[in-house]
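USER: I would love a firmer grasp of how sequence relates to backbone shape in proteins. This is the protein in question:
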Amino acid sequence: MVAYGNCLRFQGELVVSESSDTVIAVAMPQVNVNDEEVTLVGWHVEDGGQIAAGDPLCEIETSKSTGDVPSPATGVFLRMVEVGQVVAVGQVIGHVGPSLDAIRKHLDTRTSTSAATSPAGPIVRGAAGATAGAIELARSYGIDTSAIPAEGRVRRSDVERYLADHPELQKRPAGAAQAAAVETLPAGLRSLVADEGDLPDHHWSIAQHLAATHRRLSAAHVAMDVAADRLVRWIETQRQAGRMTGPIPLLLHAAAQAARSCPALVSFRLGRRVYRYRSIDIAFTARSADGRLFTPVVRDVPGRSLTELAERCAALSMAVFRGQLEMADMAGGAMTVSALSDLPVRFHVGLQNAYQSALLTAGAIRDEVALVDGGPIARPIVTLVLSYDHGLMDGYEAASALAAAKTALENLVV
C-alpha cells in the first residue's frame, strides 16, 4: 500500500489510501484554490538522495506565486517528474522510502487500486518549458508559449513583456471558451446587449475552477436559523477589548463542531472513491484591497480558543488585504466558511471549492420577535446554510451536522 501526503499541510496530511510503513508517495498539494496544476521549477534533492521530513523537496510555481514544497517524511527520495513539467494537483511527484531498492520493489508490485489513485502519467499542457503562471496568462490571450522568447523557461513576466511588445494581441478574446461564447451569442440578442470585454484573469480562473469542481459533486443545501445572542455579545466583547473581529472566527468554531459530529464534511469524492482529511483545517473567504477573493486556511481549528481563532483570522485577512498571503496559507483546507454580515442578506448559498465537499455560510444578523417567558421580545437571529455533496451524505446527516453548528453558536461561553 502507499500513503499520499499533501505536503504543504504542516499539521495534517490528506488521506487518500492506506498508509505504508516503508514507502510514501508524495502527491502535489493544492496550493492556490484557483489552480488545478502547478509547474515544478526545480528539485532541492538529488534523485536517490536523502531527505528529512520538513526539508524543502522542490520549488513550484502557481499562477500567483512561487514557493517550496516540504518533504512529508524522512528517507531516500525517487523522482517521478522532471523539472519544467506542469503537474496536476494530486499527481504523484516522487516517493520517499528507506532505500531505492524498497521504492522500486514497491513500484514493481503496486496494485491496480493504488495505481488508480493518481493520474496515469504527467500532465503537460502548453510548452514544456513554461511555468504555470506563464501558461495561464498566455492561454487567456490565445498565445502559444513556444512563440515567446525567453532565457530558460517561459515565465509570466516574459508573457507580460511579449504582450507589451504586441498590443494587438490584447484585443483577442480571452481563451477558447470565451471566444466560443461570443460566437454562439444568439443573433437576436446582439442588438440588445453591449460587449463589456473579458473577465479579469483572477475572476476567469475562479469561474473555471468552480465549474470544474461542481462537475464532480452533487450539490445540495440545508438551512437553519440560529439564535445569535451570544454571538453578538462575543463580538461586542472582543471589540471592547480592542480586537476588531466579526462572525468568521465563530463560524470556524461552529464548522469544526459540525465536522466532529459528521466526518463526511471533511471528506470529498473523486467519482466513487472517498478521501478524508486527517486534520480539521478550515478555510474562510477574504477579499484583497482590489476586491479579489482568497481563501486562507486556519490550521487545527478545534484546538484553538475563540480568541486564538480571531487573532489568526485577523492576521490572515491583513495578509490578504496587503497582498502578502503566503502560498502555504492557502493549502489544504478541509472545508470553507463564508459570511455576508455587512449587507442585509438573510442567507446566501455558496459553491464548494475543489477537493472539498462542504461550505458553511452565514447571512447578516437580524432581529426577529420571539416569545420568551410568555412575552414577545426582539432577538438577534442569523441563518446558516450548509452546502454539501449529496453523494457523500443525505439531507438528514447534513441537517444533523448543521444542528451541531447551531448548538455550538447558541452555547458559546462569553
